Structure formats: structure tokens, C-alpha cells
Prior knowledge:
Layout: H1 13-33, H2 42-61, H3 72-93, H4 101-106, H5 113-139, H6 156-180, H7 184-197, H8 210-216, H9 222-229, H10 239-270
Amino acid sequence: MSALVQTRPTQSPAQKYRHSLWLLTKRDLKVRYSTSFLGYFWSILDPLVMAAIYWVVFTQIFHRGRVGEEPYIVFLLTALLPWTWFNGVVSDSTKAFTKEAKLIRSTKIPRSIWISRLVLSKGIEFVVSIPVVIAFALISQATSTPAHLHWQVVFVPIAVVMEAALALACGLIVAPLVVFFRDLERAIKLGLRFLFYASPIIYGLEQVPGTLRGILAFNPISGIFSLYRAAFFPKELDWFDVGISGIMTVVLLVIGILVFRRTVPTVLKEI
């Protein structure tokens, strides 16, 4: 990893940061897929299998009524794929410092880069999985309930930026705290499992009853998912939820930066 410190003298701190971030991201992707026969397909296999399971359970085994929109497989994937990105970043953040402690101590690059590279590498995996949604949308054209792309697809880039910021915020909070409280790693896994079912992934916001609907609005990822879903299901877009998600993302990002800056010096002594 000597390339991390071999930057040009004329580079600004921001350029050096971006250079190191890209090197670490490429290393993550190469390590993950270089020895894998299926390579890229592993990035979409997990959400695809989950979507297939929920599709079978809710459409073939049980009469689910109106849990989501048709075609249900497209409805599922438009939230499952973004969820995989967020879940992957937060889960891997629990080991961001402990997994590569020696390398982190020996380099002088900003330690936040070890969280940023998770957001970027998982984000790249998310982007390359989008063709799966398109493929199922095209397949659905031959059914009685085809998926139609709407103009609200222009909101997807906004959703990507918001989710990247939210994932970064959570990572900045989780990564250093796990070093001090090792049991937090298991608690995070349980929390993510709860958040999965508390988020509009296997169901739609329109189907959530009144009081519970108001509570779910304060789930910071709900509004982000509604932006993704609006590309095919405009009725799922709720600007109130999006606004709440935006506010909570900014608040969590500020908290994350403060927590990270205050704890990093002690973290470096602990790892």
C-alpha cells in the first residue's frame, strides 16, 4: 500500500484524499472479486435471492393483498438493492478499524478515508446492479402488469447522494465506537435486522396505517427509498418523508463528524 503515500508534491490535500480513496476502493473491489469465479454477479446475488424468496412467499404461497405495487419483483428490487448498499456499509464499518489496524496506524492519510472507501466501493456495486432492475422491468412488459419508467427517475441521483451521505454518517459513528464497545458489533447487526423490517422494502408506504405511518416517516432511509421507487411507482414518492430523511441525514452527518474527530486519537491507541 505504499501507493497511498506516493502522491505528487503539487497535489492539494483534497486531491491527495481523492487519490488515496480511489486506490483503497480499487483494492477492495479487486480483493473481493479477483479470486471469484462469478465476480460481479456476487454483488447482485444476495438481493436477487432475497427478492425471489419474498416474491414466492407473498405472491405464490400467501395472498398478500396490497403489500406493494405490481410487478412485485421490480417493487422489491427498487428498495432491496439500495438497502444492500446501506447495510453493507454499516456492517463493514463495525470492522473498519479492527480489520486493518496495522495499516491504519502506519499511514498518515485521514482516517475517515477507511469509511469513505466502504461507501464508494459498496456504492459502485449498487450502481452496477441497477441493470438487474431494468432487466426485470423489461421482462414484465410481457405480463399483465408491466413496469413503466416515469419521469420521476430524475430523482434517483438525489437518492444516491442522500444515501451515500447517510451511510457515511452512520459509518463515522459506528466505526470508532465499536473499538471501545466490542459488543456493539452484534447490536448493530440486530439493529440492521430491525431496520430492514421497519423500512418500506417488502411493503409500500401507502399500505402502512396512519399512526405507524407517522412513526416510519422518521426512519431516515424511508424517504430515500421513496425517491428510488418513484422511478417506477410515482405514488410511493412522499416529499414529507424525503424532507425528514434529508434533515436526519444532515444531523447524523454532523454528529458522525464530531464523534469521529473526538474519538480517532484514542482509537489509534486502542487498535
